């Protein structure tokens, strides 16, 4: 959802999905639109304000926290929304492992010994 907010801002709430949109942006957009559809006018205004604020923020961690709180609150209040969103998410195949790294110098691994990120590091034997 953060990718969708970053890409489209508050327009993510009403924007039709572009065929060339990235899959991550697409699922985030569909989730936010589902939350949007289930809100009354006041709720939609609040959602648009929160998304606008998150869009203006340059800190991805802040945007992630804001959008996460918004989604958590929406899911707590609406069990049908939980079911709708769960149906949107892909079901991994048995035994499938998905690992994601996001952000500057991020690393991701299922199993790892030593991982070092940063400038000028030399390995010690």
From TrEMBL:
It comes from Streptomyces griseochromogenes. This is Uncharacterized protein. It comes from the Bacteria.
